[in-house]
């Protein structure tokens, strides 16, 4: 089991390569998001932003990165001196880059990100159940307080205070827990809700959403028996995430029927109408291979064009 603070040391700025801890046994590649000594020295000496970006593009050409800044620049952290993976952000309070950063939580005095997001959700759920248990067990004595059946004067105020604290905490935690459950269903972080990640085809808040079922498994894992236990079961390595191919909300996604295959521009092979990119991530391992459909005739009415525009995310 991972400790609460341990996972966030993986992206601390250093001169050596970042050691990404992999939770999936089939993930064998380790990506180096730090610049080499030569590129780093050249980057620091260069004062022109366009040439600095050229250095970063050359260093990031083999990295699994599909998001950029709003100005289409490579996301680079000058503080940690590394190229930021997708969904990674620098925390000013912890002074390190955090994988899939959601927010910095002052109540636990730590950042919430890829490696402890499941633990944070379970923490909220456990706290919610505890407040509910306390309020339910004190309720009978709270009723006796108003009916003046309690004789102990000191116990009256203790019960009154305990009930109100448990009830108020339950309402507050319930709102926070519901909000993060909604984020899990959309596969978004709190940061991505307020600032959509920039892909090659523009900003998209739902760029990492794969549908409710897959989004849930990405955080809690494949085996449901471990979902409610404080055991790290999240899928992926925190640096590479499967993305959507089209800018559409999963609930609003309407795909053409199979007898209307979409064809990629400049290619003769029919393109599959599924809005998911191919990935080595285990999240998509259960899906079967896309089967190429044979050529079929299409009857297109005059003045009407039916097509599906798709763009690949590298």
From TrEMBL:
Query: Does the entry feature the keyword Transferase, yes or no?
Result: yes
Q: Where is this region: Disordered?
A: 256-314
Any idea where this protein resides?
A: Membrane
Q: Name one GO molecular function term.
A: protein-cysteine S-palmitoyltransferase activity
Give GO cellular component annotations, separated by semicolons.
Answer: membrane
- Give me the stretches of Polar residues compositional bias: 256-268
Q: Return the InterPro entries for the record.
A: Palmitoyltrfase_DHHC (IPR001594), PFA4/ZDH16/20/ERF2-like (IPR039859)
Q: Where is the Palmitoyltransferase DHHC domain?
A: 74-194
Primary place of residence? membrane
Establish whether keyword rRNA processing is in the entry. no
Keywords from the UniProt entry: Acyltransferase, Membrane, Transferase, Transmembrane, Transmembrane helix
So what does this thing catalyse? L-cysteinyl-[protein] + hexadecanoyl-CoA = S-hexadecanoyl-L-cysteinyl-[protein] + CoA
Q: Which EC number(s) are documented for this chain?
A: 2.3.1.225
What kind of membrane protein is this, topologically?
Multi-pass membrane protein
TM region(s), chain numbering: 119-143, 155-177
Q: Which family does it belong to?
A: Belongs to the DHHC palmitoyltransferase family.
In the UniProt entry, what is the domain comment?
Answer: The DHHC domain is required for palmitoyltransferase activity.
Q: What is this protein called?
A: Palmitoyltransferase
